[in-house]
Each structure stands twice: as structure tokens, then as C-alpha cells.
Design goal:
The complex is a heterodimer of chains A (about 475) and B (about 300).
Chain A lengths: L1 E6 L2 E6 L10 E6 L4 E12 L3 H16 L1 E5 L4 H9 L2 E11 L5 E2 L11 E6 L1 H8 L6 E7 L4 E6 L8 E4 L6 H14 L3 E6 L22 E6 L2 E2 L3 H16 L4 H17 L4 H10 L4 H17 L14 H7 L4 E6 L5 H20 L6 E6 L7 H14 L1 E7 L7 H6 L2 E4 L5 H10 L4 H9 L5 E6 L7 E5 L17
Helix pairs in contact in A: 5-6, 5-10, 6-7, 6-8, 7-8, 13-14
Chain B lengths: L33 E3 L9 E13 L3 E14 L2 E16 H4 L6 H9 L1 H23 L4 E5 L14 H10 L3 E6 L6 H5 L1 H5 L4 E4 L1 H7 L6 E6 L8 E6 L5 H11 L2 E2 L2 E2 H10 L3 H14 L10 H6 L5
The chains are: A alpha/beta (about 475), B alpha+beta (about 300).
């Protein structure tokens, strides 16, 4: 490989067919004269093209199409000519430099010699050692680079961070998300998943359907089946948040509700049945009563709450987390509930988690939210990424609609896992707000195969790496259901 | 003096022929009769040969040249196959030329004039191929780019005359077709042919033989297609002097597009050097023969500046 030119932070390299490198690979450019090194990443690949070369190819094509060719080429010039036709130009972005003490530096103000520079592909392991990318809790994601080197990120780099997994549908978003959930649980983390498609429960099963090593640590919760709160456990704040944000209860009705709540609490009869009775007999405006009754009916129908508080005490986060101290995947199955109930669950869960984290009753939790725009209210986004991070809720948003996430969130994101996008609008959106440069995003992401992602951010020390996500050894549910079965 | 004259302007030293001929003033030359050509659908192999040579490099003692040839074969209107021969390198210097059979004066010319050297190499390679074709096949038509004219660059036993003799011996016909002629009179002579609807030829033996020495065979102006297509000069050597039959078989077995045989067109294309090939040749020389490339400059560009002239 030879350097041809440099413009801004972009290098143009000449490569022959034998130079094995591809988009996303890192190159080490070593200037032997000044003993300096530079790291660049290939982001685009094209043919070495000149008008005469194109004319030659066209001419040859026309000639060979019209009659059978026989060659007598004693000097084998034809081989050279074919090599030239297959010559490629790599466009690479300068990412860093290596100083005389072999330390990574951002001093890229020098230009490597075109004559004395040696260019070679940098292995991922070499890159890791240069970056000093190590950790205690590895998450093996898959392979990277032309040599298919194993690549692992570290759970520490997801800890306390805001992450986004995005790509077009069926490109492998959920696959990676499940892999992260599984490994975080294996490392003892408490992970909460808002599962829209009832697919994360497969983490508890092996490919053949038998229980996996995480079977005991995977808890699937759905209304009426494990997910039943008591009003007392949720607390007035969480319930009022739910009524206000999920059920759009007006302020006047909410005030009456508080009065009823306080009365029932004083009487120590706080349950759904008593609440219903109180609403019916309370001395209030009939319109307010109607509003309260309708909300009460929705709450009753949702099956989220213990009807009379006489059950087994209802679901308690702190109990479950304390019981599964070796790691826990708490999967909230939102696939089979109505959008209103979905919003109610999310509102309750987030409010309660914040409450418990504030009281330090539970350790920090990782939150994985699939297509969160469908159930998280607009104002909650900011809460999640700013306030909740401080309480100890570390969110990972999984979506195939990058425009569903606002620019404000992208700007605060620490890690992005980008899967394939071919749509220009999506690419525009991502490239504008991403942590990497526009050219890299547009060129690499557009051609990523299925289950390959471009990882950007803290997890890769801000040097984007293309990773081929390994297969999951657990049951991967969530495939698109089809009518015509092959 | 110029008033009322018809002009055909010359651009970039290229030859242009008036689309509708020169008009009535050309008629005084037009005394030859026109014979129409009927395609003969009798299977006859057509072999077309063309070659080109370039100067690759210069040394203190001589020059390095490369030559490339193309042979195409067609029958019954279909191209069968083509052979690309080369590129082959030739190094001409006093030392290498000393052992050749070239005339002493000619070697001096060749060493001093690169164009002559290129011509020498091309003609010798072409004649060698023509000799082989003329004795390996029979009852075929061999097409050559250019006129059938003896050259001072030919070797004694591989001259165009030897090729023609072989053709007679093996009952082959040889046709030399020139795309353009330096003899301006021929443009005017060929006017009646442009008015003819189909393929036809006219004998110009007398004109050619009065102007050029060393040509062989019959000299004709031919039009190989219909409508307004260029009229070409063709020199032809046939076994029994039956020009009509040879030209008829050519029309019947080769594809004629825009009045030019497709085999000859293809031979031209496969024998010309492309800029990629030239670059590859330089690369081959640099990497295989332990040579050193020295810095050089384009004198014209240096002296005249970068404005294209």
C-alpha cells in the first residue's frame, strides 16, 4: 500500500489486489525517516480509475465479446495490466498518531513521507494495546478486522453510560441487545428490559429450548403474571405520575384523588377495591367522579395491581434483586398489553426504580428499552438521560428508527452501535449527530452486512470499529412471523 | 484566387474526405470503368493482420521498442477468434544491430531516427506473420492494413513479394487495404464510386504504377458497402487474377461495417498499445532488467510552457 495524497484529515492510499484490507480496518503508517507513526481508518474503497483505464477495459470487453481470444504474451504484460485494472484506492481518516515513546497522541499535524512511509494493516489486538483498552468484565461481542480477531468490550464502559443500538430492521439490533443483556447478567448486573416483542425471555433458554445457565436469573414479568403491584408499594408519587402522564388525568381530578388516597392510607385500607368504593361515595363534582371512575376502570382492567391487597404482597423490586444477587434480567413483557397499559407499566417502573435508588435499596440498574418512543413520554427522555443516570439507571435504547430519538439524546450519548442503514434520511440523521465523522458513518454503515455493526464511543476508546456480532448461544426469539414458510 | 473554391479544412494533421466528393472538377481523372462486386457465399477463411510499435525508452547507446500484433479470423460473416501477439521488446543499439543482416546505411538511419526504427520493427514482425499465414493455409484471404508495397525494411526472404508468392502457391489471396492514401489524386478519381449504390471497385493500376514504384498486384479503389461510405484503396494479389471472386468472397465471409472489414478493424484494435500497457511495459522493464530510471523532462513543455500547443 502506498500513500498518494492527504487533504484535511483524509488520506488517499493506493492498494493492489493483494493488499487485503477493507472498510473499517485500521492502518499504521510508519514514517521511517522521522520515526513517527500515524493511525488511519479506511472508510471507503474504490477502483483506481482513469479515463484510459476505463477505455482499455471497455475495448477489451468489446473485443473479447466479439471473438474468442488467444494470447501470446511472452513478457506477461497482460498480468501487470490486469493488476493495474484491479488496483484500488482506499480513503482513510486519520485517527491518531503514535509518538516516539509509543504512546497514542492526537498530534496529527505532520504528514508522513510518501517515499519512506510503510503502510500496514493494524491488528485489533495491536490497536487495543495502543489504546490500553482493558477491563475486568469483558463482553465478547464477536470478531473484527480481516483476520477475524475476537473483540470484546468491557462492561465498565457501559456502566453509567447512555447507549444507543440502531440499524434498519432485521440488521441485528435486538441480537446485540440480547447479547449485552446476557453478558451483563452473567457479570452480576441487574438488567431491566422493556420487551415489546416477547423475545428476551429466550435468554433463559438454550437454542434447543432447554434451560440455560441464566434460566434462574431471567424473570419475565407481565400484568397478572408476576407483575402485580400493591398501591401502597407503588406510593402516591408513582401512582400520581402514572395517572398524570399515562392516563392524562386533569389536575382537578388529581387533587381529589390525593384526598381519597390520604384518607384510605390513614384508614390503612389502601387497595383497588377500597379506592373504587371511595370514588363512588366521595362527595365530589360529578365530572371529577366520572374522570376518577374511568381511570379506576383502566387501572382495574390493566391487572397491574393487586385487586384487594390480600395477595402475596405484590411484586417488590428490592426483594427480587436481593434474592438474585448474582445477576438478574427483569424482562417486562409489554408485547401483549395495550399501549395505555404499556405506558402505565413504564411510568410505574421508572418512578419506583428512582424511588428505590434514591433510598439506596437497590444497586444501579441497566435499562434496555426497545422502541422506547412507543411508550416513554417525551419529557421522560430527558429525565432518563440526565437525572436517572445520577440515580443509577443506565439506559440503552434499541431502535430501528433513528429519527425517533431526539438530537438532544444523541448529543449526550456515550456509545453507539450502528447497524446497516441504506436509507439516506436515516444516514443523514445518524451522521449529523453521531460521535464519528460524517464520511465514515455514511460509507461504512451503508455497506454493513447483517449482524455487523460499527461501534463508536467509549467502548472502543473513540476509535470506531466494525464488529461482526457472534451468534447467541441462547434462544433468539423475535423473528418476523411469516405466512409463507420456506 | 481563393474566391469560390471548395475547402476541406485540415484539423490536427488528420485526413478528411469530403462527404459528397470534390464535385465536377474531378471528372477529368475518372476514366476507369466501375465494376460492381457481388458477395460470394462460399466458405473462405479471412485472416486479417495488423501491428503497431512504440518506443518505450531511450538509453545512451540506443532505444528500446515494443511491438504488438493482432490476427483475426472470420468465416461466413462470423468472427471465429483472434490472436494477440506481444508486446515483445526490441532493443536497437549499435551493439545489437551489428549482428543483423541489415544494410550498413540502413542501420545508421534506424539508430538515428526512432520513427524509422519503429517502422522497421513493425514491418519485419508483420511480414513474418504474413509469411507464416500464407504458407500455413490455403484458399484463404489474407487482409493487410496498408498497401502491398515492398519496403527497404523487409528482409530478403520475408518480403511482401515472398508473401505474394506463397499466396499464389497455396492459392490464397492477399488484399492490402489502405484507410487513407497520400496520393491526393485518388480522392478525386474515386468520385464516381461514391455515387454507386452498392459495393464496387475501379482499376487504378495506371495511376498507381505511374506514381509509385514497388507495388505488387492489382491496384484498385474499392467501396465495400452501400450508400455513402468511404472509398478505400486496395491492392490485391489473387491466384488467377480473379479480383471479382476474391472481393466477392471477402464480402461474403467478413462483416463489412461502415465500408471496412470487421476483421481488419478488430486486428487494429487488438494490436494498438493502450496507455495502461505502456505503463505496464515500463514497470516490467524497471523490475526485471536491473535498470535505473533517470529523471527526464518534456523539452517542448519546458520551453513552451504548460499551455497546450
Amino acid at each position: 500500500m502506498k500513500m498518494l495524497s492527504k487533504k484535511d484529515n483524509e488520506l488517499l492510499m493506493l492498494a493492489m489486489k493483494t493488499d487485503t484490507a477493507s472498510k473499517g480496518d485500521y492502518l499504521l503508517i510508519e514514517d521511517e525517516k522521522v520515526k513517527k507513526k500515524m493511525i488511519a481508518q479506511i472508510y471507503d474503497e474504490e477502483y483506481l480509475s482513469s479515463q484510459s483505464l476505463i477505455e482499455d477495459i471497455v475495448k477489451d470487453e468489446v473485443v473479447t465479446a466479439s471473438s474468442t481470444e488467444n494470447l501470446h504474451d511472452p513478457l506477461n504484460i497482460g498480468i501487470l495490466s490486469r493488476m493495474l485494472r484491479d488496483a484500488r484506492m482506499f480513503r482513510a481518516k486519520i485517527r491518531a498518531a503514535i509518538d516516539l515513546s509509543d504512546k497514542l497522541s492526537s498530534d496529527v499535524t505532520w504528514i508522513p513521507s510518501r517515499v519512506y512511509s510503510k503502510v500496514r494493516r493494524l491488528k485489533i489486538s495491536e490497536l487495543d494495546s495502543l489504546l490500553g483498552r482493558t477491563g475486568v468484565f469483558p463482553i465478547p461481542l464477536g470478531k473484527a478486522g480481516v483476520d477475524n480477531e475476537e473483540l470484546e468490550i468491557y462492561a465498565e464502559d457501559l456502566d453509567g453510560k447512555l447507549n444507543i443500538i440502531t440499524g434498519r430492521k432485521e440488521s441485528g439490533n435486538s441480537h446485540l441487545s440480547k447479547k449485552l443483556v446476557k453478558t451483563l447478567v452473567q457479570h452480576g448486573a441487574c438488567v431491566i428490559v422493556f420487551d415489546l416483542n416477547n423475545e428476551y425471555r429466550g435468554i433463559g433458554c438454550k437454542q434447543d429450548g432447554s434451560p440455560s445457565s441464566l434460566a434462574d436469573q431471567t424473570i419475565v414479568l407481565e400484568p397478572g403474571n408476576g407483575l402485580t403491584f400493591t398501591l401502597g408499594y407503588c406510593g402516591k408519587a408513582a401512582i400520581s405520575n402514572m395517572l398524570k402522564n399515562a392516563l392524562d388525568m386533569p389536575a382537578a381530578s388529581l387533587r381529589e384523588f390525593f384526598r381519597i388516597w390520604d384518607w384510605l392510607e390513614n384508614k390503612q385500607t389502601l387497595d383497588i377495591e377500597a379506592l373504587g368504593n371511595a370514588i363512588n361515595t366521595w362527595n365530589i363534582n360529578e365530572l371529577v367522579r366520572d374522570a376518577l371512575i374511568s381511570r379506576h376502570h383502566v387501572i382495574q382492567a390493566s391487572r397491574i395491581f393487586d385487586d384487594n391487597g390480600k395477595g402475596d404482597g405484590g411484586f417488590r423490586f428490592e426483594n427480587l434483586i436481593a434474592k438474585k444477587c448474582g445477576g438478574l434480567a427483569m424482562i417486562f413483557n409489554l408485547g401483549r398489553v395495550t399501549p395505555v397499559v404499556r405506558r402505565m407499566i413504564v411510568e410505574l417502573v421508572l418512578s419506583k426504580l428512582v424511588d428505590l435508588l434514591e433510598k439506596m435499596l437497590i444497586p444501579p440498574v441497566f435499562l434496555f428499552a426497545e422502541e422506547a418512543h412507543l411508550y416513554v413520554r417525551d419529557t421522560y427522555w430527558e429525565d432518563i438521560i440526565t437525572r436517572m443516570r445520577h440515580f443509577g439507571i443506565y439506559a440503552t435504547f434499541v431502535t430501528n428508527q433513528p429519527d425517533a430519538i431526539s438530537d438532544g439524546i444523541y448529543r449526550q450519548v456515550d456509545n453507539i452501535f450502528l447497524f446497516n442503514f441504506t436509507n439516506d434520511i436515516d444516514l443523514d440523521k445518524i451522521s449529523k449527530v453521531s460521535l464519528a465523522d460524517n464520511d465514515t458513518i455514511r460509507s461504512i454503515v451503508r455497506t454493513l452486512p447483517q449482524r455487523h455493526c460499527l461501534s463508536i464511543g467509549r467502548i472502543v476508546c473513540d476509535l470506531p470499529i466494525v464488529i461482526k456480532i457472534a451468534a447467541l448461544e441462547v434462544l433468539t426469539l423475535g423473528e418476523t412471523k411469516k405466512f409463507f414458510i420456506k | 484566387m481563393l474566391k469560390g473554391k471548395k475547402f476541406s479544412f485540415i484539423k490536427n494533421d488528420k485526413t478528411f474526405v469530403p462527404l459528397d466528393g470534390w464535385g465536377s472538377k474531378s471528372t477529368p481523372y475518372c476514366t476507369a470503368t466501375i465494376t460492381t462486386i457481388q458477395p460470394i457465399k462460399e466458405d473462405t477463411m479471412i485472416y486479417a493482420i495488423d501491428s503497431s510499435s512504440i518506443q518505450v525508452a531511450e538509453t545512451e547507446e540506443g532505444s528500446l521498442y515494443a511491438v504488438k500484433s493482432g490476427i483475426t479470423m472470420a468465416i461466413n460473416g462470423c468472427e471465429l477468434m483472434h490472436f494477440k501477439i506481444g508486446p515483445v521488446l526490441f532493443y536497437l543499439s549499435e551493439e545489437t544491430i551489428r549482428y543483423s543482416t541489415l544494410d550498413h546505411r540502413l542501420t545508421k538511419f534506424v539508430l538515428f531516427d526512432n520513427d524509422l526504427a519503429k517502422r522497421l520493427i513493425r514491418i519485419r514482425v508483420e511480414r513474418a506473420i504474413q509469411m507464416e499465414l500464407s504458407r500455413q493455409f490455403s484458399k484463404s484471404i489474407i487482409l493487410i492494413d496498408g498497401s502491398l508495397k515492398s519496403s527497404i525494411f523487409e528482409s530478403k526472404n520475408q518480403s511482401i513479394k515472398n508473401v505474394a508468392e506463397n499466396c499464389s502457391l497455396y492459392r490464397n489471396s492477399i488484399i492490402g487495404i489502405s484507410k487513407a492514401s497520400k496520393l491526393k489524386v485518388l480522392d478525386r478519381v474515386s468520385l464516381p464510386l461514391t455515387k454507386i449504390q452498392g459495393p464496387a471497385y475501379m482499376d487504378i493500376d495506371l495511376i498507381i504504377q505511374s506514381l509509385v514504384r514497388n507495388t505488387i498486384g492489382n491496384n484498385l479503389m474499392v467501396k465495400l458497402g452501400n450508400n455513402s461510405i468511404p472509398v478505400l484503396r486496395a491492392d490485391i494479389v489473387t491466384t488467377h487474377g480473379d479480383k471479382d471472386e476474391s472481393l466477392g468472397k471477402l464480402l461474403g465471409n467478413d462483416s463489412i461495417i461502415q465500408g471496412y472489414p470487421e476483421t481488419l478493424r478488430l486486428a487494429h484494435h487488438i494490436s494498438t498499445f493502450t496507455s495502461t500497457e505502456t505503463s505496464c511495459l515500463i514497470g516490467h522493464v524497471l523490475s526485471n532488467y536491473d535498470v535505473t530510471e533517470i529523471a527526464s523532462e518534456d523539452i517542448r513543455k519546458t520551453l513552451l510552457g504548460s499551455i497546450p500547443v
